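Problem statement: downstream parser choked on a complex file, so we are re-checking the raw output for the zinc ion run. The parser issue turned out to be on our end (a line-ending mismatch), but while we're here, posting the original submission so the record is complete.
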Amino acid sequence: MGQSMITSTIPLDANGVHHGFLKLPYSRNDSAWGSVMIPITVVANGDGPTALLTGANHGDEYEGPIALQNLAASLDPATITGRVIILPMMNQPAFAAGTRCSPIDDANMNRSFPGKPDGTVTQKICHYVATELVPLADVVLDFHSGGRTLDFLPFAAAHILDDKTQEAACMAAMQAFNAPYSVRMLEIDNVGMFDTEVESQGKIFVTTELGGAGTATAKSVSIAVKGIQNLLIHTGILQGEMQISDSVQLDMPDDTCFVFARDAGLIEYLVDLGEPVAIDQPIARIWPADRTGVAPTICHAQRAGIMTARHVPGLVKMGDFVGLVAVPI
Ligand SMILES: [Zn+2]
């Protein structure tokens, strides 16, 4: 593997505020010597910890980009100790297209880490972030929400890790973020995730799922804004008092938390986000989309808990995710 083709138009280690781009040459039909330009802001002041804050890993999730645009426009270096590296649209091609995956190579960025310097556009971005930015960071916060096909209760999450010291630090950072829900998260498909790459470098990592359905709300953005502020205080980069409210603690012990569609059709939810469910309780039923007079397929919870995520919009395909039932601790 070689050197990254990506260059930063701003210094990553200079005091003050610098707004610029990560510039990736991308030759294509409409621009022979064109580039992908990924916005970046670095705010730094003296020696201290570094936080790397990323949004739009998936291009159709908006709390991160909005809250990080706010932060990039307002963070005063005089108020911090250390450095904050802000990438509101880490997956700029997907963000510009309003899609989860990149329209350039169809790649899902959060399954493409650690990337390759000589790979596709998405792999090149992943490689740069993994080899040039993550090593600078003490803490990494990667914003997600449900995008166009999922909706979530607003939560911050940390993963169960082999290194218990690192796990405790990640859990503490998740609690500092203080979303209305806090989840010890099990990933159903963790190979190639940014999370896994950051954790493998021994860093503190927090992720979120703050809503979804292809948009952001005033409430979900306010959770993101408060979470950033709290995390920067927790890390020692900002001074001040954290704003802490009650947070419902949820666990995802195993894959019985997940319910998937065994048929395609028109989905009727019987339980809404945040509502309790019992084991074997029907959480949704799927009506045929193309005929009448046929009984719906029932989707049952496989464990008791709280309805934490669901599919959007109204039609499902066979194999689609239907519901996440997480367990209150
Ligand atoms: Zn996402």
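For whoever reads this later: The pocket of zinc ion is lined by residues 57-58, 61, 144, 147 (CB under 6 Å).
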